[in-house]
């Protein structure tokens, strides 16, 4: 009787240690997944931002040449575009908290959307495989 209880508690201890190790591994993998998603969202946003900046840069150069042609002075055209840049920068500085919150909400929204999609897929397919078999 005593040997049965010793074996039972030994197996219980081994199962608890195994469970704790697996739970720790699951937490690590979850952290890796969230970090990967965050990096992918930020990288994608950075690429779009760089492309938008180039687009805006060339559009403003074109605007400066257009205004310079219309006003018969390239200096005035580029001065007006520089003034427009200063107004945009002033607006960004003035409303920086609003822009920070907007960016933060966008990143959080992107991460939670990916997480919700993953949870919905996991609930629909408890086996976790792609084919649902």
Keywords:
single chain, 133 residues, mainly alpha, 3 helices, 90% helix, 0% strand, rod-shaped, disordered C terminus
Q: Mind describing the biggest β-sheet?
A: none
Topology pattern, helix = H, strand = E: HHH
- Helix/sheet category: mainly alpha
Integer average pLDDT: 84
Total helical segments:
3
Secondary-structure blueprint:
Blueprint: H1 2-71, H2 74-94, H3 96-124
Helix pairs in contact: 1-2, 1-3
Account of the protein in words:
The chain has 133 residues and is an all-alpha fold. It is built from 3 helices and no strands. Helix 1 (2-71) packs antiparallel against helix 2 and helix 1 (2-71) crosses helix 3. Residues 128-133 have low confidence and may be disordered.
Please summarize what this structure is.
By secondary structure, the chain is mainly alpha-helical.
């Amino acid at each position: 009787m005593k040997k049965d209880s010793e074996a039972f508690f030994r197996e219980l201890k081994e199962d608890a240690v195994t469970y704790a190790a697996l739970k720790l591994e699951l937490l690590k993998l979850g952290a890796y997944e969230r970090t990967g998603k965050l990096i992918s969202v930020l990288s994608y946003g950075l690429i779009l931002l760089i492309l938008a900046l180039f687009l805006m840069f060339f559009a403003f150069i074109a605007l400066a040449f257009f205004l310079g042609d219309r006003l018969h002075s390239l200096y005035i055209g580029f001065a007006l575009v520089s003034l427009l840049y200063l107004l945009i920068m002033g607006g960004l500085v003035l409303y920086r908290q609003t822009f920070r919150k907007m960016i933060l909400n966008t990143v959080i929204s992107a991460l939670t959307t990916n997480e919700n999609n993953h949870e919905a897929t996991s609930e629909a397919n408890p086996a976790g495989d792609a084919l649902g078999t």
